[in-house]
Amino acid sequence: MAIKLYNTATRKKETFKSILPNTLKIYVCGVTIYDDVHIGHAFSYINYDILVNYFKHFLGYDIVYVRNITDVGHLTDDSAGGDSGEDKVEKRATERKMHPMELVYTYSHRMWKYFDALNISRPNLEPCASAHILEMQEWIKKMLNNGFAYEVNGNIYYDISKFKGYGKFANKNIDELEKDTRFENDKNKRHPADFALWIKARPEHILKWTSPWGEGYPGWHLECSVMSTKYLGDRFDIHGGGIEHIFPHHQNEIAQNYGYYQHDVVNYWVHTAMLMVDGKKMGKSLGNFITIEEFLKKHSAESLRYLFSSGHYRKPQNYTESSIMDAEVAIERINNFIKRLQEIDNDRDTSYAKEIIDNTIENFKNAMNDDLNTPSAWASIWFLVKEANRLIGNNQLTKEEANSVLDFLQKVNLVFKVFNFEQATTKDKNKIQRAEIEELIQKRNELRKQKKWEEADLIRLNLEKKGVLLSDSPSGTSWHYE
Amino acid sequence: MAIKLYNTATRKKETFKSILPNTLKIYVCGVTIYDDVHIGHAFSYINYDILVNYFKHFLGYDIVYVRNITDVGHLTDDSAGGDSGEDKVEKRATERKMHPMELVYTYSHRMWKYFDALNISRPNLEPCASAHILEMQEWIKKMLNNGFAYEVNGNIYYDISKFKGYGKFANKNIDELEKDTRFENDKNKRHPADFALWIKARPEHILKWTSPWGEGYPGWHLECSVMSTKYLGDRFDIHGGGIEHIFPHHQNEIAQNYGYYQHDVVNYWVHTAMLMVDGKKMGKSLGNFITIEEFLKKHSAESLRYLFSSGHYRKPQNYTESSIMDAEVAIERINNFIKRLQEIDNDRDTSYAKEIIDNTIENFKNAMNDDLNTPSAWASIWFLVKEANRLIGNNQLTKEEANSVLDFLQKVNLVFKVFNFEQATTKDKNKIQRAEIEELIQKRNELRKQKKWEEADLIRLNLEKKGVLLSDSPSGTSWHYE
Predict the structure, then answer these.
(1) Which CATH fold would you assign to the domain A4-292?
(2) B residues 202-261 lying closer than 8 A (beta carbon) to A
(3) Under DSSP, is residue A238 helix (H, G, I), strand (E, B) or coil?
(4) Least Cα separation, residue A145 to chain B (angstroms)
(5) For chain A, how long is the longest CA-to-CA vector?
(6) Fewer CB within 10 A of the terminal residue: chain A, N end or C end?
(7) Residue B212 phi, psi dihedral angles, 5° rounding
(8) CA closest to A125 among chain B residues
(9) Predicted confidence band of residue B428 (pLDDT cuts 50, 70, 90)
(10) What pLDDT was estimated at residue A481?
């Protein structure tokens, strides 16, 4: 049972085949470190965490996961070519009167703190751009030699006209790009969409290095070509990022890879959608900017992981306070279900549940193997919760079956990390026994016969609070767990 | 009131004068990352934490503290020249079948975790050697140009004969060094004590970079010259490290700095002594190797900080289980004292304590200003505890005086970080009121008159458990807090 992934390069779902047997080599574009990480970052990296966890725990792959840290070269105006404006890190550091590397040090550690708090697995390696200047210079030298780059006044540009099909990956046409007014009118460039590999530094610039072309710093796109291949080799399986990276960042990586190796490097390009907040793009000026730190003051990591995985990674998701509150309720429901399973002590030999469990496992895997269709994977789990609750209500789930459901949920949790298996073993105040439920239903029926509707309804409401739902029909009242 | 520091370069205590007004620029040699940090690391970095905290909170300096991470170039045999054996990081990574940078990533984060757990303040910057290869190559080029280095077969060596007075810093004589059999018999070297700036890599070596001299990696000593000056400038105040760094590491840094700048870079060289465990040098083979993780399973961070600061940083310290237990008792005594101070509610107008407090503050500062004489600084605090306890016993310490003692201890704690000011405000079970103490003493005296020695002694022992010590004299029984 192979997994299919949507490959941005081909605009198709493709059956995944790894380069090395049972090893996934994956590179994901990391954070540009100049401020605190926010829930937009969380959306992307939780989704990649789920991808990697699923490959590891369900598909049995060894993982080599590299995620970079951008600490130099990412300019403030990255909407088009990405070569105009100031270096984001240096600009913020100057405002704060800090050395840029101190800013990076501080916010890297804050990023790790909050990503850890969201239970996002660490990659195997987290290389920094600033630690690979020498390697970037080697790449530039080779691209100059190969004729894919040119120098003007201490700046080196990539010559997109030399890479046949530049733009194809991002569905862009070179002639249209030429008219795109968002490109800076840089007289040095032969084509407006040519992009910088090396940028000449002004004398007061701090983040700069010596080079054969004078003092300068690398263009943003170069680091990812260099660090992905340094640690994963000249061909690797998956390159991930956010949809905003498709152009220009990943298009330019592909061009650089070709300019250096003269072949493609990445087999599957994966992109996560944009997270909206209250229906708008998140932005500090819009007042809908939520850092992970702020989020965690009000809500749990599990609720965010549930919310994000309940939509599909390629579908834009809208974060609202009410959506996160719904997520909290959903998780509590499953945790109550887990507690119920853990308490089952019924060893009668029945087999009502086997088919339900088998179907669920199959549906879950089918969903996940279909381009990580997490909403559909969750639907299979909700089906299990509903059906198993019905069986528990009828006292028809054996301890053995409950354990196999728990085993499956434990495995699911290695991927999603949202459930709590270590709930208090002491009696829950809200816990209600089957006999008690049936007694209360009988009492309610008597009250209804006596037309004491309000008192009868109070019983129904109290049971509902304890997770027990009643349904009345002509043949009587049945109940099931929520 | 200026501070004096012992300068290894002059073998004298010198009055400290910073290069920039009220700014301390300090570089400390950090950890070579290939295994877990141990209490030997803790000894050194807690002492530097105390130094930096004292400069900041008592002397009013702004701090620029740089501590490096060695992730390449530190060879297994660093006893003499440091150029023989294998790269420590690469060797361990190969054993573990990991990429060397994954090993570094894993253990860096473990180092931060345990240093944080010991409350060791973070430096402003923690640069890695592997992130400064380009800068190191620039240094080598300039040293070659300046005539301080030579190339043999893709290796670059520092020519110690070109640096007049090589060996002086470490009290070594060049002619004696020539006979030191610990130096590897490297035919490439003109003098056995010449040391590698760049080491040619074998083809299978992973941690290597291109260079004008072929593929290789930097010698260990180079990174500290390069990173200290990159972030602190070509002249800075303090360079710290352990006593084991004096030769060859710091001697070679001095030589490199001269080879590059033709002047001295460091004004004060500070070195912490060696930590012994159970009277022996700590070593895995001796079975007396204690990681910080293991230490913290049994004892508190505060106890280690107290223990290490109760000796002087330049005096070898011997760690034993009983010494750490004594430290725990000492801290508890001070914490009890703090609780007692916090509970004082005596607003009579007295001035018994003023002189004691003033003397203590002055003695504390004098001790710390005398080359961070922490044992003597602690003696001043114990004097305060004893004298203030006496006044409390006599009900002669006012709330205002208690608060000024607390203020002083709060400030001291910014340096040492051992006290607990947030103790339970609920009544302590062990707490005993003055009236009760006096009642019990009277009862004991009566029992003694009745020659009921055992019963009388039981009262004494019970009071002792609660921190109240009795002294009998011909004029009667007096008591004081422990």
Answers:
(1) Rossmann fold (3.40.50)
(2) 209-210, 231
(3) strand
(4) 17
(5) 95
(6) N
(7) -65, -15
(8) B102
(9) low
(10) 84
Pick from A99, A122, A210: CB nearest B125: A99
Query: Tens digit of pLDDT for each residue in B340-367?
Result: 999 998 887 777 899 999 999 999 999 9
How far B423 CA lies from chain A's nearest CA (Å)? 25
Least-confidence region, from A434-443, B63-72, B219-228:
A434-443
Asked if the C-beta of B121 comes within 8 angstroms of chain A's C-beta atoms, the answer is no
Q: What is the ipTM of this complex?
A: 0.87
> How many angstroms separate the Cα of A65 from the Cα of each of A24, A126, A243, B109?
8, 9, 19, 17
Interchain contact, B131 vs A134, CB within 8 Å: no
Distance CA A205, CA A201 (A): 6
Q: Does B299-416 carry CATH code 1.10.730.10?
A: yes
Residue pair A389/A480 in contact (Cβ under 8 Å)? The answer is: yes
Pair type for strands A12-15 and B236-242 = unpaired
Put simply, the answer to whether A125 touches B102 (Cβ < 8 Å) is: yes
% of chain B beyond a pLDDT of 70: 96
Q: Are A137 and B133 in contact (CB < 8 Å)?
A: no
* Nearest-angstrom CA–CA distance, A176 and B361: 75
Nearest residue in chain B measured CA to CA from A136: B134
Residues of B in contact with A126 (CB under 8 A): 105
Bridge partners, residue B151, by sequence: B156
Interface membership of B40 toward A (CB under 8 Å):
no
* B residues 352-391 lying closer than 8 A (beta carbon) to A: none
Q: pLDDT class for B311, splitting at 50, 70, 90?
A: very high
Region for residue B403 given its phi and psi (left: phi exceeds 0; alpha: psi -120 to 50; beta: otherwise): alpha
CB atoms A130 and B133 under 8 Å? no
Q: What does the pLDDT look like over B67-122, one tens digit per residue?
A: 999 999 888 876 555 577 889 999 999 999 999 999 999 999 999 999 999 999 99
pLDDT tens across A260-301, in order?
A: 999 999 999 999 999 999 999 988 778 788 999 999 999 999
- Mean pLDDT confidence for B392-399: 91
Domain ranges of chain B: 4-292, 299-416, 434-481
C-beta atoms of A102 and B124 within 8 A: yes
Please judge whether B105 and A112 are an interchain contact, meaning their C-beta atoms are less than 8 angstroms apart. Answer: no
Q: What's the confidence (pLDDT) of residue B348? A: 78
Q: Find all residues with CB under 8 Å of A156, minimum gap 6, and list them.
A: A140, A144, A149, A150, A196, A197, A198, A213
Is residue B426 predicted with pLDDT exceeding 50? no
Contact A125 B138 (CB under 8 A): no
pLDDT, residue A461, reads 87
C-alpha torsion angle, residues A201, A207, A209, A214 (rounded to 10)? 0
A419 to chain B, closest Cα gap in Å:
26
Nearest to A131 among B131, B137, B231 (CB): B131
- b/e per residue, B48-79, with b = 16+ CB within 10 A? bbbbbbbbbebbebebbbbbbbbbbbbbeebe
DSSP letters of B143-162?
HHHTTSEEEETTEEEE-GGG
Interface subset of A 87-116, CB within 8 angstroms of B:
99, 101-102, 105, 109, 112
* C-alpha to C-alpha distance for A293 and A109, rounded to whole angstroms: 13
Kindly tell me if the per-residue pLDDT of A198 is higher than 50.
yes
Task: Specify the higher pLDDT residue, A145 or B80.
Answer: A145
Phi first, then psi, for residue B94 (nearest 5°) are -65, -45
Query: Tokens 């990649």 correspond to what residue?
Result: A48
CA–CA distance, A309 with A320 (Å, rounded to integer):
15
Which pLDDT does position A431 carry in this prediction?
Answer: 66
Minimum Cα–Cα distance from A105: chain B residue: B125
B127 interaction partners in chain A (CB closer than 8 Å): 101
Tokens of A205: 């610039």
